[in-house]
Design brief:
Blueprint lengths: L1 H29 L7 E8 L2 E3 L5 E3 L6 E4 L15 E9 L2 E11 L6 E5 H5 L9 E13 L11
Parallel strand pairs: 1-7, 4-6
Antiparallel strand pairs: 1-8, 2-3, 4-7, 5-6, 5-8
Length: about 150
């Protein structure tokens, strides 16, 4: 009888944890304004190491984007909904690109994105440094995390 009670207690706790995880991540997805254009600025970076999604990145050779800390909702960024098939579609002077979110930009405000160097170069010369863009979150289904790798925060 004790075993049965312990098993019920354990199963209840496990079910509660799963329910919290599923419902909690659903709310976080709801916080991402998919398809809503944002007028902002874009800069570029070329760091290499681990991105906030816990995967190896090389911003000098891979097309990717770091978004403001304001958009990250999980206490562990490796598990953030932004790392689960979210990209940013960026438009500048008639050119539009789509790049996966793999990192966060702690120095960026909510309207500012930090593109990798090759992504930025698809839009403008790096000599420009900062450009005014329109961007939006889009779902691409290409999961870039999570991983158990150490975090890289710029």
């Amino acid at each position: 009888m004790r075993t049965s009670k312990r098993l019920r207690t354990w199963l209840s706790a496990a079910l509660g944890a799963v329910t919290f995880t599923v419902l909690g991540s659903g709310q976080a997805w709801a916080d991402i304004p998919f398809g809503q254009p944002i007028d902002g600025t874009a800069t570029y970076y070329n760091d290499a190491g681990y991105g906030a999604c816990g995967t190896q990145i090389d911003a000098s050779s891979q097309p990717l984007v770091a978004v403001s800390s304001a958009w990250w909702t999980a206490s562990n960024p490796n598990n953030d909904p932004l790392c689960q098939g979210v990209s940013v579609q960026v438009s500048y002077n008639g050119t539009t690109i789509t790049v996966p979110v793999t990192d966060r930009c702690v120095s960026c405000d909510a309207n500012h994105i930090d593109l990798s160097q090759p992504a930025f170069q698809q839009l403008a010369s790096t000599d420009a440094g900062v450009i005014n863009v329109t961007w939006q979150f889009v779902q691409t289904g290409q999961d870039v995390g999570p991983s158990r790798a150490p975090l890289h925060q710029r």
